[in-house]
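User: Can you help me understand a structure? I only have the sequence.
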Amino acid sequence: MMNFIRKHKRKIFVVVIVAFLGGTFMGGGAYLFGPAKDHDAAATVNKSKIPLKLFSSIYTASTDMYRRAAKESPSQQELEQVKIQTLQALVQEELFYQKAQDYKIMVSDAELKNDIQSSAMFRNSQNQFDPNIYYSFLHSIRMSPKEYEAMRKKQIAGEKLKILLASAIKISDSEFEAAVAEGFKGSKEEMIQIKANDILNEWFMKIVKSAKIVTNNNIFHQ
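Assistant: Let's start by predicting it. Here is the structure, written out as tokens:
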């Protein structure tokens, strides 16, 4: 089970992310949008600030990627959508990180180092970690090593929490057999993934609705 979750962790939480994107800015805007009290923050999540510089770095990197992929400049509407998606992703990461802290989930410096050095993004043609590639990447997204590594630690903590929660989700043989009898065509592992999505989506949306999230609306008027 744990091996499956680790192998498919990027797929398991797709529904969680989609529901968050659809719910917080459309159905739940009243509790998410508010007046900016700190112009150096893109948002505050339960009093924890998401630095405006971090938002700007990721937003700029995202728009640069779009230009390279599409070979054209995004429209104003597309730029606004990237802003929304960037802010949503950062808010989601912060919420998962805060919950990871509640569960006493830690990320050591050794774990962070291993995560960075094992990333395919930073490997050279000999498949070895290349500091020059790493620092070139940081330069391209306008982030210092300290800023990027702090962000990555939060992301890893959130990923560990997701794995912990998903590991508790089970499907009995009788439950799987009943689903197959009703027409389910997938494997037992696929059924676990669907169940994990549903349960974790519901769990996360409760967290979003109970959180105090205030965004800096000025970023949508630039």
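Now, to help you interpret it: The CA atoms of residues 45 and 94 lie 7 Å apart. Strands lie at 41-45, 48-51, 213-215. Let me know which part you'd like to focus on.
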